[in-house]
Amino acid sequence: MTDTDQERDRNKETAFYKFTQQTLPACKPVLTPAWVITIFLFTGCIFIPVGLVTLRASRSVVEIVDRYDAECVPEPFRIDKVSYVQDDSIPKNCSRFLKVHKYMKAPIYIYYQLDNYYQNHRRYVKSRSDQQLLHGRKYHGTSSCQPVEFNNDHAIVPCGLVAWSLFNDTFKFIRERAELKVNRKNIAWKSDRDHKFGKKVYPYNFQNGTLIGGGKLNPRIPLSDQEDLIVWMRISALPSFRKLYGRIEEDLDVDDVVVVHLMNNYNTYSFSGKKKLVLSTSSWLGGKNDFLGLAYVFVGSSSLILALVFMLLHLRYRR
Amino acid sequence: MELHNNNNTCTTFDISRGSSLVQDKLSKSRRVRNKSVDFDDNLLYSGNPRLIYINDPRRTNDKYEFTGNEIRTSKYTLITFLPKNLFIQFHRVAYLYFLAIAALNQLPPLAVFGRTVSLFPLLFVLCVTAIKDGYEDWRRHRSDRNENNREALVLQLGGFRLKKWKKIRAGEVVKIHAHETIPCDMVLLGTSDPSGLAYIQTMNLDGESNLKTRYARQETASSVFEGCNVTGLIRCEQPNRNIYEFTANMEFNEQKFPLSQSNIVLRGCQLKNTDWIIGVVVYAGQETKAMLNSAVSPAKRSKLESYMNRETLWLSIFLLVMCSVVAVGMGLWLHRHKDKLDTLPYYRKRYLTNGKDKGKTYRYYGIPMETFFSLLSSIIVFQIMIPISLYITMELVRLGQSYFMIEDKHMYDSNSGSRFQCRSLNINEDLGQVRYVFSDKTGTLTENKMEFRNASVHGKNYGSSNLTDDLSEEHNIRAVLRSRWKLKSEISIDSELLDMLHKDLPGDERIAAHEFFLTLAACNTVIPIVSQDTSSGHGRSESWEDVEAIDYQGESPDEQALVSAASAYGYTLFERTSGHIVVDINGNKLRLDVLGLHEFDSVRKRMSVVIRFPNNTVKVLVKGADTSMFSILAKDTERDDQIRQATQSHLTEYSSVGLRTLVVAAKDLTDAELELWQCRYEDASTSLVDRAAKLRQTAALVECNLNLLGATAIEDKLQDGVPEAIEALRQAGIKVWVLTGDKQETAISIGLSCKLLTADMQQIIINGNSEEECRNLLADAKTRHGVQSSNRKKQNLKRKKNSENGYLDILDDTKSSNVLQRLAGREELAVRAPLALIIDGNSLVYILEKDLESELFSIATSCRVVLCCRVAPLQKAGIVDLIKSRTDDMTLAIGDGANDVSMIQMADVGVGICGQEGRQAVMASDFAMGQFRFLKRLLLVHGHWNYQRVGYLVLYNFYRNAVFVLMLFWYILCTAFSTTSALTDWSSVFYSVIYTSVPTIVVGILDKDLSHRTLLQYPKLYGAGHRHEAYNLQLFWITMIDTLWQSLVLFYIPLFMYKESSIDIWSMGSLWTIAVVVLVNIHLAMDIRRWVFITHVAVWGSIMITYACMVVLDSIPIFPNYWTIYHLATSPTYWLTILLIIIVALLPRFLVKVVHQIFWPSDIQIAREAEILR
């Protein structure tokens, strides 16, 4: 017992001594040609297969994108779209015909896409109160919600620009005269529903002011079930963004024509923002995006080439 | 309360007092400014002396102008701590920057970060520093309290009673017992020794461990014995820092006599070998010399840091450009959307809702103001572009580096038990770029342990060849005699000289030899300390019953050697008091009265003592430097001339083998001469004004027409490893200049013995005695050796630098040492034969003060070696300044004595040797060590490492912060210039504080490119520092371009990845946070050259901790980023994106690095491969 203890002590001492003399045994990597070639080869061998797999996954995704903001304004109003969209007396319904060019397997995700919409503007991002979303009227520190904070000296629930500007176009999908079933549950993060948005917080005075920014909320449904709001309030990172609207839980066949009846309520005309409707299947990687696969293949093949170049150089000019 | 009645005190001086007070105030301010450590500067305030009434503190202090003895080294009290500490902390620019940024963030239109978040970095740094300062001050308080509450015996109510130190006042009489510490500066009144002698140890003051003698004046010593009631008046100079000078006089019992340095004991010294002393307090508390000397020497700044500040300026320009881009973008955007600001869903300039604010603008101040606010808020977001944390990081890194330098066993001097000391923490990396080393000789290159080697007596040389290594028969006869006095060191004795001394032959030669040794024994300031108890001695001494050990304590090692030598020849200095000395001549004790002593000074360069023999003859005994002695010898007979020539040839012979020489002479004084001298001497030594000059004049009275007795030669041994160290430094491209106070011949001989000078060198010797002569000598040397004028020289230097850049091939088939030689040889060819410049102090006086400086500079820099002999301390600094002001090259000065202080403080790096000449040099130095040879390791190994580490550290920190800021910048361009950050506030703050700080510190301390063995084996590797390889402007720009690329990759890969997707801002921010942290850590990992356990922990641990922090931050529901990381982690895209970012971002850097290392390797790289792949 004591012997081994002493030995350990001595080892510790010598280790400490070596530490103070800066002579601890250490790994000292040197970039020898062999190592360099190995590293490049290794990178190439990893990246090219991964790239091919991701590319395949991305290619397997079927996506239908339809821009409707311009077409859905009737001809006579196209000169002044803003007043059209702001005039409540004019009906806003509009129909779009989408042709399915490739078999789409359920679930098919429905997104709406807004372009040139700076949800990430600092004034916008800040204008919300996460405490109020959770605690409702009981919470009073809502000053961050300005300029949309009070309505007749009562704090608006939910307050802030973000909630105020809730997207309110609606979509109905009809295939061969039968309405497609759209599941609009579980489109928001479960964590948001359970812990961020209060189960007993009701939007009792939402959109009661003179200026109405966007969608209204049913005052009898608590915020935790207002999934459109929850999705909307996950502020998007970039000025062109998609948000989940729902899921079609039926497969779409090739050459199916889906008729979309939509209410073109949301005003993007004031800042010439585009509105698009997106139907997309998904893969293990998510939506359709070739970039990742292409980048991986490109990086992988360039490192293979580099490995080759270094090998040749090494053979030619051996030091 | 003292209730003394002081009727007897002199009142005559009271008149002058009132008027002197006004001047006192004036001179005080003058004195405070005069803080130089110039010991020659003997400032005397004759107009307003300090008046101390002995044993009458009340009268002494009636104007409350003298401080009490309470000392305070602490900075704060409980009440002042917070304001004062904050005030001091905010003197640093970095903190002001932090404060300004935090303050900006508190303005409502600019609130980029949350209020608490923005204050976090500042509060963190402030708290850490405040706690550190508070702890240090608490310790100071404690030690102050201990110090102030010590007790001493003070004369009160007619008897000595204990009194706390802090209550002691000037004018009080204090009694100190043996081994006690002196509480304040006191003039000695009496001691337990009847002759008024006291021994003190001044270790705390100047680090010298030998005992020094102090004397009480005979006049006071006797009356102290009689009774306690002493009264008198001391007039002394105002408090000053000079611990080697004290000028005062005392009015006592109607007598007036001078007081000098030998009459005062200083605070902090310890009483030894003396039972008690009684003294009167003259300076107390903060006015004591010890306290006045505790000021620290001015801080130096490293050169790399000043380059770094230049690059920081570039970074601030980048910062401003980025902020202006954001601001202008904001302005244009607002202008374009001017009409829509009330209709945009994401930008509302007015309050929207019903209520009192309806229709008012909300945080909108018009386009120009918005633009301006946008500028300010982008400064807040981009604040870490200026790497303020770098200064704190560098301090920590240097601390770690110092730890390793201190712990290095190869720089531990086992002889003196002194380890390496880092006294300055700011200039570690300067050690890697030194180009000029200015070295003192005595005590630095040599050991300063003097050994008596040769003597020339009466024109005859003794001890050169026939040194008795073995004890001859004759020797044994004398053994009994000699062994009565055990000496510390063995001295080899020339038997012929010894015989001659003991023969009772009459004759000049015999008398000369007698006087010669008498002078050696008498003409000095050495104190013999006789220890009676033999039992405490070594085992050897026990064999002789009656052996008394004599230990010679003195301030000059030369004198100690001479006295020991005299003792070996039978002339043992036995006792010394202020009035007489006792010399034991072959067993007969001879008591000699010392009438006066002219101490050694740098002007006269000699010392003399006037003694009266028992038979009433009076003699003056002189010893001094040869130049100053030969001119004052008597010029009489032919015989004298012969002796003089013989002695002179002996002297040249001695100095040619590197011995230190002194000339010894004496003469009898006639009564008339004596009387004249005595009168003048008394007058001069009581004078308060110009005492030194007056004494010098007095000395001239007796120091003339001397009879030459002979000369001595003392060997000053070279330290271990000096030639090797100098050779290594030379190979490393460092020029070693030796600056010494020795003679030209001695300097050259030492130069030869330490391989500084070699036989094949052409020596240029400049020793002119006038400006014209120097000018001619310089011009002559220039033409003869083809030295170009300074501007052509520059081209040449450039060429030379290029040739130095030629990388050396260690992997070559030929032996590497051959390569080195070949390289050296090629260089030599270019400059023809190597030149050595030898210049003496006299010429330097003319050259440094006149316009010949540039001439000297051009010659000196083209010489391989420069030796300056006979230089004064200030000239040493002048030479350092010559190089420092004319080149960008780093200078290092190394020395051990007080005369090197100015040079050490002038040079970029000052190194002190803990030697025998006290600690003045160490106190003024930045680094201190035990031996000269450690310099090789300090520069070649630690200097190299530190330079490489700090250089990389700075570049990496620039990169680390810039890549982060650029990434934020690109994103802001996508947010309508609204300075939104996708990262959470806490992540932005933690990035430089927690996520990435530890690895840089660890790598800055532990990374190491080459082993010390390789570095010592190939000194040429040191050239990396000369060529600024680890940090230069080019590297900075390359790093910045790399940074730009990496930030673009960081930003755009996720952008393309998540283009037109439903990703939210916090997920994107989370991805960027992780990506940038992983990226900078892998970047660092790629450059680490030595992986030890701690490095692994730091690098991988940082990434781990970042993840942990993100998980914690994403688990708090009130943050909008709630649960983000959990969502991301389940998506394969996230991981693939991070991998892609890392690879693509680092690919160019890796490629450049690989290509550079394989096809254009630096010599460090070659040496490294040779070392590892061997």
Care to describe what's here?
The complex is a heterodimer of chains A (319) and B (1174). With 319 residues, chain A is an alpha+beta fold. Chain A folds into two domains: 30-61 and 285-318; 64-281. Chain A is built from nine helices and eleven strands. Chain A has helices spanning 2-20, 33-59, 81-86, 122-126, 130-135, 161-164, 190-196, 227-233, 291-316; strands at residues 63-67, 93-99, 108-114, 150-151, 154-155, 170-175, 178-179, 182-183, 241-248, 257-263, 275-280. In chain A, the strands form three sheets. Chain A has a five-stranded antiparallel β-sheet. Chain A has a four-stranded antiparallel β-sheet with strand order 2-10-6-7, with no helix packed on it. A two-stranded antiparallel sheet of chain A has the order 4-5. In chain A, α2 runs antiparallel to α9. The longest helix of chain A has 27 residues, at 33-59. Chain A starts with a helix and ends with a helix. Chain B is α+β, with helices and mostly antiparallel strands. Chain B has five domains: 70-151, no CATH class; 168-293, Distorted Sandwich (Calcium-transporting ATPase, cytoplasmic transduction domain A), CATH 2.70.150.10; 420-444 and 719-785 and 832-930, 3-Layer(aba) Sandwich (Rossmann fold); 450-462 and 485-531 and 548-717, Calcium-transporting ATPase, cytoplasmic domain N (3-Layer(aba) Sandwich); 968-1022 and 1034-1173, no CATH class. Chain B is 47% helix and 17% strand. In chain B, the strands form six sheets. Chain B has a nine-stranded mixed β-sheet, with helices on both faces. In chain B, α29 (920-924) links the parallel β33 (909-913) and β34. In chain B, α4 crosses α10. Chain B starts with 14 loop residues before the first helix and ends with a helix. The model of chain B is unreliable at 1-45, 465-485, 533-546 and 789-831 (pLDDT under 50). Chains A and B meet through α2, α4, α5, β4 and α7 of A and α11, α35, α36, α39 and α40 of B.
